[in-house]
Amino acid sequence: MTSRSPFNARTALRNATLGFVLTCAAFAGIQAGAQAIAGHNSDAPVDYAADRIELQDREKRVVLSGNVDVTQAGLRLRAARTIINYTDTGSLKIQRIMATGGVTVTRGNERASGDVAVYDFNRRIITMAGNVRLLRGTDTLNGGRLVIDLRSGVSSVDGNASGSAPVTGAVKSSGNGRVSGSFSVPKDGGK
């Protein structure tokens, strides 16, 4: 063994540790993107547009279909079909939005996509299921289900579309039951 081996081992260990720390920092960055959505004002007015809007007054819901576009305080949801459940005791109040068909949710430069999304206004929870993908810059995070708790600011990604928070509708995840991702590691400036 040469005298340089301990140095090389220390250098390799330092570089591996640095790489791990940078990867964790990148994951924290993409989680911060989901956390940014967690700061969303769910009491702000909701604007919507679609190719077709059907009011189902007895069921207390509005069905939007075709190029659905729903916005609220900088948060934008786009889907093929959306059902908005509401109450009208005293004043109209949205209870829940369920979107299906190529769902994307964007805020700023962050984007989440999946097969189904449910925004529960009472619980202040957004759940996305089925082929979930989070994008922030070049960083990605993939899984079966994403849950964002707007009250606590806690977000989680599961590998499977099923979990403790139920999502109505048939959802199949094409993934292997694991969470995966890709993160950019900043250059160390030649050091």
UniProtKB/TrEMBL annotation:
Residues 1-28 form the signal peptide. It comes from Tsuneonella flava. PANTHER family: LIPOPOLYSACCHARIDE EXPORT SYSTEM PROTEIN LPTA. Keywords: Signal. It holds the Pfam family LptD_N. InterPro entries: LPS_export_LptA (IPR052037), OstA-like_N (IPR005653). Transmembrane segments: none annotated. Residues 159-183 have a biased composition (Polar residues). The keyword Amino-acid biosynthesis does not apply. Residues 159-191 are annotated as: Disordered. Residues 50-153 form the Organic solvent tolerance-like N-terminal domain. The keyword Acyltransferase does not apply. This is OstA family protein. The lineage of its organism: Bacteria, Pseudomonadati, Pseudomonadota, Alphaproteobacteria, Sphingomonadales. It comes from the Bacteria.
